[in-house]
Structures are given as C-alpha cells and as structure tokens.
Amino acid sequence: MNRGVIHVDESPIRLERWRKYLPNWLKRFLPTRGGRSQDHHGKAIFGFTVFLLSESIVFLSFIFTYVGLRLTHSGNWLPPGISGPKLSTFVIINTVVLLSSSFVIQPAENSLQHHQLNKFRWLWLITICMGTYFLIGQGIEWSNLDFGLSTGLVGATFYVLTGFHGLHVLTGVILQIIMLVRSFIPSNYDKGHFGVSATTFFWHFVDIVWVFLFSLLYVWQP
C-alpha cells in the first residue's frame, strides 16, 4: 500500500477552500483532502474535535435549561432562608487557578513537540496539581453551601451544572496522569503524541466551559 496516497475528499462541505483563511493552530483540527493515509494524528484529532462538539451540545442543553428556568422563576428562585452560590474570594481564586492551567498545559505540549521531555513533565505535573486544586476547592465550596441537590431549582441546576463540569475536570486530570506516566516509557512519544494533544485540547474545552458556568452561576443576576 502506498502510504503517501491522498484519499479523495468526499465531504459535502469543501473544507479545503476555507483552510487558507484559518490560522495554523486551527488547521490541524480539519482534514486535508481526506487526509494522508499515514496522517493518523491529524485524523484522530479531527475525530476528537467532533467528540468535543457533541459534548458542547450537552453543556449547551444544560445551560439553556438553566437560563430558561432562571428567567421564568426569577421571583421564587431561592427558597426562604437560602442565599444561593456566592461570588467569594475563594471561588475567584479557584477559577483563576483552573483558567491559568490552560497557559501551563499548552507550553507543556509544545515542549513535547520539541523533544524537551523533562520540561514537559514538570509543566504537565503543574497542570495536574492545578486541576486537582480546583476539584478540592469545589468540594470545599459544596460542603459550605446552605443548600443541597434537592433544594428547589437552585440546588438541582447548580449541582448538575457544576457536577457535570467537575466530572470532566476529573476526567482531564486522570488523562493527564496517564500521559505523564507514559512519558517515562522509553521512546513512547517518539512516533507521535496524539494522547497529549487530545488531552490538551480537552483541557482547553473544560476551561472554556467553566467561563460560561462561572458567569451564569456566580455573576449573572437577572
């Protein structure tokens, strides 16, 4: 089999004509003329991008449900004696730590691309610690709230939104640990590092989602 063969692009959307207008970092998430037969990394990243788009739809459904309920029940959103989630210094610090981790994990992936394995390990480990810090902080916040999952709409929506996001953060941390352990296998990343690229992309996705959730749950006051 000729591994340099370019497959025919049978997509109904001619992505190739739009590629020249996109930045280089975005081009890697799109297939090129069906993708070269040996371009496993590019095709896998494209597939992972489609997966994250499907995850986005789930989050959007939760977010639109929250907005709709909040607007239609603005008068009785908080049960008597319930203060709801508060924008505290603790929450802000926790948010800053999570969002800052995106500026750590990306240089970590770049270091691996330049075969700087030790730098990758240290930056990757810092990202793991930052994600773990966020999860612990979220657990502490939950324990100090004056409402639970069954406390009306405010409890149901808050815990579903933050819990589903927290599950994604936990998944990201587990994936990062796996990628870090694999870095100690001799020559493991010599032939490619799709796992690291996918985990990095997933982590950026998690951070972006939290920006929306943070704005809705702690900042927005209709």
Structure characterization notes:
It is found in: Cell membrane. This is Heme-copper oxidase subunit III. Keywords: Cell membrane, Membrane, Transmembrane, Transmembrane helix. Belongs to the cytochrome c oxidase subunit 3 family. With 222 residues, the protein is mainly α. It has 8 helices and no strands. Helix 3 packs parallel to helix 8 and helix 5 packs antiparallel against helix 6. The N terminus is likely disordered.
Features:
membrane, transmembrane helix, 68% helix, Heme-copper oxidase subunit III, 222 residues, 8 helices, disordered N terminus, Cyt_c_oxidase-like_su3, Cyt_c_oxidase_su3_a-hlx
Terminal Cα span: 62 Å
* Quaternary structure of the protein: single chain
Rough shape? globular
Task: State which percent range the strand residues make up.
Answer: under 5%
Instruction: Give the helix proportion (percent range).
Output: 55-70%
- Distinct helical segment count: 8
Strand elements, count? 0
- What is the N-to-C order of secondary-structure elements (H for helix, E for strand)? HHHHHHHH
Sketch the major β-sheet.
none
InterPro entries: Cyt_c/ubiquinol_Oxase_su3, Cyt_c_oxidase-like_su3, Cyt_c_oxidase_su3-like_sf, Cyt_c_oxidase_su3_a-hlx
Keywords: Cell membrane, Membrane, Transmembrane, Transmembrane helix
Subcellular location: Cell membrane
Pfam family, one: COX3
